[in-house]
Amino acid sequence: MQTDDASLTSPFIYLAKWTLIASLVAGLAGSASALFLFALDAATAARSAHPAIIWLLPAAGFIVGWIYLHFGRSVEAGNNLLIDEIHDPKQVVPLRLAPLVLAATVVSHWFGASVGREGTAVQMGGALADQLTHVFRLRPHDRRILLIAGISAGFASVFGTPLAGAIFGLEVLAIGRMRYDAIYPCAVAAIVADLAATAWGVHHTHYSAGFVPPAGALALLAVAGAGMAFGFAGMAFARCTHALSALVKRHIAYAPLRPLLGGAVVAAAVWALGTDRYIGLGLPVIAQAFHSQLAHWDWLGKFAFTVASLGSGFKGGEVTPLFYIGATLGNALAPLLHLPFGLLAALGFVAVFAGAANTPIASTVMALELFGPAIGPYAALACVVSYLFSGHTGIYHAQRREHGKTGSPLR
């Protein structure tokens, strides 16, 4: 009888415990994301009003590199540090990770680097969450769940996609395995963090996929083909970013000089091309990809600018640039596959991310949240095919590989 009573009370204790902890995590992460997004909007507006500021990007890169060299060595790994701590807990993530990555990302955007925002929100969410480890005297197992919830809260609040955020925290840790013991904390953290950011007045960009044709054999075959292209793009992005980062570290010993050089390359490229459409978040171009035909090389331009920025050491994230790459690549493929621009842009938006991050489930759910349920079958097919064709190297090198993607054992 005692066993039955324990089995009945245990879920209530679990719910009470993680409702409290996850809600605190969500409040911290959602508020931090709101502050970050407001600062990012201000930085983007300032850069747009003064285009010549791009020539200060090398100096901004040097400052960011210098600050991380002297004050942020222990947290420089960013997202990978959080994933490593979840797999092998060692010590609480230093709180200084949050203000460092926030300031560095805002500076990167202000002066014209091509970086994203998800990495910053995830790192802030994880770092702030981990400060509760000592407050609640959490054991290593519970600390893992706490960090996963922080990742979910950061992702959900920066994009306004709570369901995708909850699943992203569970899915991103390892290929072939999800942490089901963290489902409830991640769900609470993601939902409440999104509500917290919204309460602060955050407004997320809305996109419309437009008309979604009925799922027929030809349309599904075309989407599967597009999924392959999205997967190859995601794989190429991850590999090129890692390769450039390794190259500059090998040949440039003094860390601040790496983003200085990268900033000079980006600034010179903006001047040579006579356009700033490939720097910053690129949200206006993403929006255009849903409605009208763009230059076929726009995705490649964003690809190159982002690899140069992140690979040389600027701080931010990969996901929004991947949205840009995917949406514009989908836009380029739409006439070839005889499908609407909006549909292919929406599928590329989520599927390139699915391949690069190895998160097909979170990406599919994101498509449902952003574009509505009608796109579900197409999004699932595009994201899964992209995942299958993107290899085992993703944007997060700390991501573990539990199983091969096609069922074959890893060697």
UniProtKB/TrEMBL annotation:
Entry keyword set: Membrane, Transmembrane, Transmembrane helix
Subcellular location: Membrane
Membrane-related topology note: Multi-pass membrane protein
GO CC, any one term: membrane
Main location: membrane
Signal peptide bounds: none
Membrane-spanning ranges: 20-40, 52-71, 145-170, 182-203, 215-240, 252-274, 339-358, 370-389
Organism: Pseudoduganella ginsengisoli
InterPro entries per the UniProt record, alphabetical: Cl-channel_core, ClC, ClC-type_chloride_channel
Protein name as annotated: Voltage-gated chloride channel protein
GO MF terms, alphabetically ordered: chloride transmembrane transporter activity
Keyword Membrane appears in the UniProt entry: yes
Cross-referenced SUPFAM superfamilies: Clc chloride channel
Pfam family name, one: Voltage_CLC
